[in-house]
Amino acid sequence: MNGGRISSEEKESISTYLVVGVCVLLAIAGIVYFVFIADREVKQVTGFDPNRPIPADNLLRRRLKPEAFAVVREGKTQMPFQNQYWNEVRPGIYIDIITGEPLFSSVDKYDAGFGMPTFTKPAATDLLVESLDTRYDMQRTQLQSKRSKAYLGHRFEDAKSPTGQRYSINSAALRFVPAERMKVEGYEAYLPLVEKK
Q1: In a domain, 52, yes or no
Q2: Could you tell me the sign of the dihedral formed by the alpha carbons of 134, 80, 151, 111, in that order?
């Protein structure tokens, strides 16, 4: 400074320091957001929370893939052998694609030869609602998730199944959480469901 006046070089220097300081502050704020706030938001939507409200259909239409929405809300059925989980063999749980509620376990999954994820029983008896389905001139037992009212598939009598029942489910109505991801995704309490009996 020369006699209390700031030279143009000093002004440029001060401006540079201010710009760098603002950039550093913004970077720190971004890091704080992603480390603390974003992590908390992820934790809020992982796992199953029975108090979490069921999203409205207009939100589900945006959130789900078109095929999944057509299955869970319009009662469509996927093609055999052309769906995501029909031949999934890893240990884990199958959760409701809408609520995240565990519905089926890999321990109860078996290959019925129909090209759909097939289970001998649900994870708990009160998770599903059964109703008569008379579409296509047939009489079948239709399955819906009790909480989300998502259409899942059908239950049939099956002598090959240890329970005498076959739960044939649309892959698009489910999301598979492998056993090694269950703790990270908030399903640690459900690990006993995937242990061999």
Answers
A1: no
A2: positive
The tens digit of pLDDT for each residue in 131-176 reads 988 887 888 999 999 999 999 999 999 998 999 999 999 999 999 9
User: Which structural domain, as residue segments, surrounds residue 64?
Assistant: 57-194
pTM: 0.76
Q: How many domains does the chain have?
A: 2
Percent of the chain whose predicted confidence (pLDDT) is above 70: 89
Count other C-beta atoms under 10 Å from residue 39's C-beta.
11
Domain assignment of residue 51, yes or no: no
Please state, in angstroms and rounded to a whole number, the distance separating the CA atoms of residues 114 and 185.
30
Does 76 lie in the same domain as 160?
A: yes
SS3 content of the chain, % helix, strand, coil (to 5): 40, 20, 40
